[in-house]
Write a structure and sequence with these properties.
Elements lengths: L6 E8 L5 H7 L4 H9 L6 E7 L2 E8 L2 H9 L11 E3 L1 H13 L10 H15 L5 H20 L9 H12 L6 E5 L3 H10 L5 E6 L2 H8 L6 E4 L3 H5 L4 E4 L20 E5 L16 E4 L5 H10 L1 H56 L4 H31 L3 H11 L12 H4 L24
Parallel strand pairs: 5-6, 5-8, 6-7, 8-9, 9-10
Antiparallel strand pairs: 1-3, 1-4, 2-3
Helix pairs in contact: 4-6, 4-12, 5-6, 6-12, 7-8, 12-13, 12-14
Length: 449
């Protein structure tokens, strides 16, 4: 493939088709490990992986969807087929936009996913795994996600798992007289603590690094910070516990919870789980996990249904423009390779012919110009029909025709650059062909919206 050509293939495991246990299983490897694994395959030129508490998704760029699916099989987690959604090129682009806009989130329109997608993009870029195809697709998805939040009301109301957890707590207990504890001061923990602080009687913030917890409580009136080593002694005094750490193993188990006439409300919004499931069977304990937040998010979905329709229309328009841009770019790069190959052959044969003519009788400047113009005209006329056919092929996603043309006119196209050579080649998503006589034009991804 030449720079900028290729198709995206992906798979997604999310809350929409998998439970929390399945998602935990799928999150057994880090983003960087998955990216490294797929990039080690010669057929893969670009890759990105997105992992959040509600989803695991991997995308690769190859010469065809079939090749992409084969590459993705090597990093497929050990889960049921029903839990995995496979995505072709257009499906991947549309899904990335829906994810960025919050349409695929547990809480419709939540804001955190946009930052998480941006982080995944930056991680892949730092590994030299993002080239022109993903650069265009990911930046467009992020741009549409920003537009959705600035031009519609898709993110009004409950917009995160942290705030959904607080809403659930408010329904299950009397916040004004409650002692609440938030475990973890990451993004979701911070949101939960900030939402609880004005309404509860007392707020405790626990974190592995106490200094980080203290930094958060400094901004929350009346809250206090503790380390995780004090967790066991403190839970017994709490009416509400919201846990959202990044621990790989549960940090709260049955040994840390005491039986009580007053129920303790535990809400686990971490992935993997912070609270051992067996804690929920303990007398006097009500345990809710991510799956239990669906009732809250269902109400949010209903309230935002109109905004969601607006966002869907926005995505439809963006997809149409983006696919046209991809197809134009793919055709232009193939045509550029075709013209450059023809130009090399023309120059070689032209020099041979001129040398032979000069040997017989030295040509005048006008005669040389006539011969050169003839060569140019022959190349232009011979390639006019293939040029049109290739542009038509790109519109039809006819990769067989395009790859055949590459083989005919660019014999070295299959020599894939080494990993160390990719960065200069992929430094910009807006690389333009150099064959000016091909009549090629390009467009920047940001022009569409």
């Amino acid at each position: 493939m030449t720079a900028g050509t290729g198709v995206i293939t992906g798979w997604s495991i999310s809350h929409s088709n998998a439970d929390i246990d399945t998602i935990e299983t799928a999150c057994s490897r880090s983003d960087s490990e998955i990216i490294e694994s797929v990039l080690d395959q010669s057929a893969v030129t670009e890759a990105v992986c997105i992992q959040t508490c509600n989803r695991v998704e991997t995308y690769v760029v190859t010469d065809s969807s079939a090749t992409g699916r084969e590459a993705l099989e090597t990093v497929r987690p050990d889960v049921s087929d029903a839990a995995i959604s496979e995505l072709d090129h257009e499906g991947s682009l549309r899904h990335l936009m829906r994810v960025a806009c919050g349409l695929e989130s547990l809480v419709l329109g939540e804001d955190q996913i946009l930052g998480q997608l941006r982080d995944a993009y930056l991680t892949a870029r730092s590994m030299d795994a993002v080239g022109p195809v993903l650069e265009t697709g990911l930046t467009k998805a992020i741009h549409v996600g920003e537009r959705a939040r600035s031009e519609t009301t898709i993110n009004e109301g409950v917009v995160s798992l942290g705030s959904a957890a607080v809403e659930l707590a408010n329904r299950e207990t009397e916040l004004a007289s409650a002692t609440a504890m938030v475990v973890g001061v990451g993004e979701m923990g911070t949101i939960a603590a900030s939402a609880l602080a004005p309404d509860v009687n007392q707020l405790i913030v626990a974190n592995r690094t106490t200094e980080h917890a203290e930094h958060l409580v400094d901004a929350l009136d009346g809250a206090r910070a503790i380390g995780l080593d004090s967790l066991s002694d403190t839970i017994a005094d709490c009416d509400i516990v919201v846990s959202a750490t990044g621990s790989d193993t549960p940090i709260i188990d049955r040994s840390m919870v005491n039986a009580s006439d007053d129920p303790t409300l535990l809400i686990d919004i971490a992935q993997p789980r912070d609270i051992a499931p067996t804690v929920g069977s303990f007398p006097g304990v009500e345990l809710y996990d991510l799956d239990a937040l669906e009732s809250i998010t269902a109400e949010t979905t209903e309230a935002r249904r109109g905004a969601a329709r607006q966002v869907e229309e926005m995505i439809d328009e963006a997809i149409d423009r983006l696919l046209t841009q991809y197809k134009r770019k793919q055709a232009d790069e193939v045509i550029a390779a075709m013209y450059e190959g023809a130009e090399r052959i023309k120059q070689r044969e032209l020099q041979t012919a001129l040398s032979q003519l000069d040997a017989a009788d030295e040509l005048t400047a006008e005669q040389r110009e006539t011969v050169e113009s003839l060569a140019d005209a022959l190349v232009g006329q011979l390639l006019a029909a293939p040029t049109k056919s290739l542009r038509d092929a790109a519109e039809r996603d006819d990769w067989s025709t395009i790859n055949t043309a590459l083989q005919l006119f660019d014999p070295g196209f299959e020599e894939r650059p080494s990993r160390s050579d990719r960065s200069p080649q992929y430094s910009s998503p807006n690389t333009k062909p150099t064959a000016a006589n091909a009549g090629i034009t390009g467009s920047d991804a940001s022009d569409d919206d």
